[in-house]
Amino acid sequence: MITFYGTGPAFGLPHASPFAIKTEILLKMAGVDYRSARADIRNAPRGKLPWIEDEGRIVTDSRMIRRHLEVAHGADFSGGYDAERLGIGLAVERLCEDHLYWINVDNRWLRPENFAKGPAQFFQRLPAALRPLIRARVLSRLRSALYGQGTGRLEPEEKRHLVELAVNALADIMGDNSYMLGPRLSGTDATVYGFLASLESDFFDTPYGEMVRARPGLRTYLTHMKTEFFPDPKPQV
Ligand SMILES: N[C@@H](CCC(=O)N[C@@H](CS)C(=O)NCC(=O)O)C(=O)O
Predict the structure, then answer these.
(1) What is the pTM of this model?
(2) Ligand 1 and 62: CB distance under 6 A
(3) Which residue has the least CA distance to atom 16 on ligand 1?
(4) CATH for 201
(5) Is residue 94 located within the same domain as residue 60?
(6) SS3 for 91?
């Protein structure tokens, strides 16, 4: 039995973290037995979530969890696609993880109204006296990370432009297909759903949800992926 450490349902999503949404879909696709546990970031083996524990072995990072499921459990996330399509899939995944991720973090954490209704909740479990200090430290670290990565230097209109390009690229690559790479599900869908659902969520005040909803193919995709993988979220242990 695998123990999967994610955030659990939050912000109208199966997990606050798009990487955790991705990982839970991969676990379901692999057909392995797992139970969900709420991750405490202070105990995260590499300071990031999600992670899993499988028979005493800890695996961190959704990309390494995917490899573990393939190697140790024989999972096949290829969907039967050829190398060219899978290459596009990998590029699409990294577009989500290494590009859209940062804009999503910026939107949730550095817009004060979004921070207050969303990520601020994560600090509620800390002792009240420590809360302001730790919150300020985390925000300062994130601001530096976003500045270093570059997203933190962009104007809101420039970020909107980049998201529009990425969302339209995803919609155009998917075309009329049911899944990202064609008529069949593949590992790429785990990532794309995690990030598109996070971007589209109207829990936060964001101009990005509308960009996703403006593409009918993506709207349909989000609905059928949710029905397929998260008809009702699994209880935490
Ligand atoms: N490459 C990692 C990225 C995971 C990641 O960045 N997780 C975020 C939550 S969405 C996190 O734990 N951030 C905490 C931090 O960076 O301190 C993966 O694929 O799992």
Answers:
(1) 0.96
(2) yes
(3) 48
(4) 1.20.1050.10
(5) no
(6) helix
